[in-house]
Amino acid sequence: MRRLLAIIISLCMSMALLAGCAGGGKNPPAGQAPETTKDSKDTAVKDGEDAVDSEYAGSKKDSESSGGNADDSNGGWSYDFSDRPHYTIKIMMFGDANSEDCDAVAAKLSEITEEKLNADVELVRVGFGSFETQLNLALSSGEELDIFNPHAMGLTTFVNNGQIKELDELLDTYGKQLKQLIPEEDWQCTSVNGKIYSVPSNKEKAHGIGFIMRKDILDEVGMTVADIHNLDDLHDVLVKVKESHPDLYPIVTNYGSLFYSLPIDTLGDSNNLGVLTDPYNSDSLTVENFYESDFYKEICTRMYQWNKEGLLMPDGSTNSEGAKQLIKAGKGFGQFINENPVTETERSLACGTDMVYWEYKQPISMTDDAAYGMCIGENSGDPERAMALLELMYTDFEVSNLVINGIEGMHYQIVDKENNIIDYPEGKDISNVGYSRYPYGWPNEQLSMVWNGYSLDIWEQYSRYNDSAIQSPAKGFIFDNSGVLNEISACSNIVGKYNNALLCGSLDPDEVLEKFNTELYDAGLDTIMKAKQEQLNAWAQSK
């Protein structure tokens, strides 16, 4: 019955996709993927734990019916690897999970890949606190790593270090459906010097910035989200929370970070070394030093004062726990967060209590939002089969749902068969399920079951969200940093010394901000900004 259900859903999604390709403008019924919209705007939040996309989605049926991938002798799958030696495809993915649960998911996935790819799968999950270190170690050591999501790390460093594959030829040969289903403007966001290096995830492709908080406590202090219009109003709420709940941190950090992002276009640089300071309200493409902007000084000064008032968790920059875990454990009231279309629902489910969201900055779509996705390692022992597996993850209902939600009965149970809604099995929740869900990190979350508590029109919500987002004037630009790697390394070390501690309120900006900027310029920030400005100008002229 489950297999029949998967086929029916896949068929419905295929019909929606074909309607979108033909220029249709209506959203499909609940539980189906939305059509490609006129602007094909998508997003990625990036959170360290929140993000998604929505304007294109494939299905197993799509693979069977287009692009020459019709081979009924193999269930509609046309790529034949039977003449190759058996291979193990290794995947590294962020997010905590027990090794036993990962092995179980990999074994279940291998039942499918053995038939279609003549390969089994090894799945490794790494927590956010050490994911970047472990990924860099795997890539630099020469380890055979086939598929991974770089998460918050940009593509260009991997490209310039020769650590990831160019995907153009692989897509043309073993990712035909992927190339057809994903809009050209999204491929541009994953291209460096005209070559594609990442398969963008089918999720939201914009992000807002705001504050998520416990509704029960907000109600208790006699306030609502409608009472908050700016950071000063938020401050007043936090003071009331501290007075009524002195044992609660009014604001917690997420694995040591207070903000997932700030209202700037980083131009693909996680260290903000040359940015657009006002992508919301200006078409200016002038690259500026964020760390000497009025906004940066104001936000650091404010956080320093809030920290002195006890409104931030102490030593927040060294916190090794996730914000939602702290809130769920009753240690925190709220956190700054990147918004997606279902932020309140998502956090309410994760924290075990009703959460409400205050919007500080409305959704905006930048290159990184649309570029978020999967790469193939340069040391992959079989990049062709890695690409074919990415296509399966994107177009096959069973595969997509498996890598996202895990195994039925072990990691989820079906609670509404008619609407294909799932929830944790009895006795399990986010804290003990063993296989954490980060749908946005996988290729196609829209080709998976709907989690209990979410609206049945969730994918329509994503489509509307993407359509309404502000577009950064630099969306589509990717900086090639190969000519300034030494300067970037030196400046990144300096940013690491000051930035997070300043944003978490641990350092007095009046004492260290000038020194911070002096060290940046001495380390070559001007050189980086000049190179970025020249490339950005050339990109704008070529549009």
Query: What percent of residues adopt helix (DSSP H or I)?
Result: 40-55%
Distance between the termini: 50 Å
What is the radius of gyration? 23 Å
Unreliable runs = 1-75
State the secondary-structure class.
alpha/beta
The count of strands amounts to: 15
Categorize the overall geometry. globular
Q: Sheet bearing the most strands, described?
A: 5 strands, mixed
Tell me the fraction of residues in β-strands, as a range. Answer: 5-15%
Main β-sheet, spatial strand arrangement: 2-1-3-11-6
Describe this structure in words.
The chain has 543 residues and is α/β, with parallel strands linked by helices. Helices cover 41% and strands 13% of the residues. The protein has 20 helices and 15 strands. It has a five-stranded mixed β-sheet. A five-stranded mixed β-sheet has the order 8-9-7-10-15. A three-stranded mixed β-sheet has the order 12-13-14, with no helix packed on it. β12 and β13 (421-423) form a beta hairpin. α6 crosses α15 and α15 crosses α16. The chain is globular and about 65 Å long. The termini are far apart. The model is unreliable at 1-75 (pLDDT under 50).
